[in-house]
Amino acid sequence: KQQTVPAIVVLRREQKWLRMLAHWDRVMNANYKKVRERCRKGIPPSVRPRAWLFLCGGKLLLEQSKTLYKELILQEGDARWVDDIRKDLHRQFPFHEMFVDQAGHGQRDLFQVLKAYSILNESVGYCQAQAPVAAFLLMHMPAEEAFWCLVSICDKYLTGYYSQGMKKQKIEPILYMTEWFLCVFTRTLPWDTILRVWDMFLCEGVKIVFKVALVLLKFSLGRAGVLKKCPTMYETLEVLRNPPQAIMEEEFLINQMHRLNLTEEDFEYEHRRQMAKRRAAQLENKKIIRR
């Protein structure tokens, strides 16, 4: 069940976060575990946008390149990516007030952020799964800050996951689901749950994505009789695309994530293993093309 945090607790958490953000570098260097603990409890809504910007390193990137975003949005960009981006704009949270109007500032900012990234990182360009991530960020912060958070997520948290070669590969769908991994659950989980997951994701990295996926897999496919109804991969994927609502509720999912008996090394190993498989698939694809 959804639990409401008492107002006095929220106020205390806000004050703690404001103190941390005022001395961010010192706090992160001296007491990362405390930051992680507070992220796991949930970041107060009033400080969440600023906290996310600091957590992912977007603040540092912005300070290092203060005029770059403004310069990028003035460029035309690669026609290929620009066309693809325009086609995807109306699909991102279409019922949200920010994105409902084709001529509104939401779709305009989303276009600029995605185009700017495609220019900045030409080797990646634009990947469709970046759009919901960028849109989700724009719901919380101005376009320039959202851009630098997107840069950090693509280049630091999910390095290689958005590579162009992956579009042509037959990667195991259960381990590599676009809706989960590339969109960081923005198209899957209820709103309050997404916020809590992202609080942890931007603090702890890609292992949080794996943890959420493991919980969803366990409680979607581990229910009595479910596997008997899934004789092939297609039925299995259909179940995973629509997990039971109860297992996606904030408190249940977060509690189950914390109960997972897996080490940091386990998640790092799985991350490296998946990236190695992707690189091998890309090389194999290049060999086939040469033939």
TrEMBL record:
Any one annotated GO CC term: plasma membrane
InterPro entries assigned: Rab-GAP-TBC_dom (IPR000195), Rab-GAP_TBC_sf (IPR035969), Rab_GAP_TBC_domain (IPR050302)
Tree of life domain: Eukaryota
The Rab-GAP TBC domain, residue ranges: 42-291
GO molecular function (one): GTPase activator activity
Gene3D superfamilies: putative rabgap domain of human tbc1 domain family member 14 like domains (1.10.8.270), Ypt/Rab-GAP domain of gyp1p, domain 1 (1.10.10.750), Ypt/Rab-GAP domain of gyp1p, domain 3 (1.10.472.80)
Entries under PROSITE patterns matching the protein: TBC_RABGAP
Keywords: GTPase activation
Full protein name: Rab-GAP TBC domain-containing protein
Organism of this sequence: Timema bartmani
Lineage of the species this protein comes from: Eukaryota, Metazoa, Ecdysozoa, Arthropoda, Hexapoda
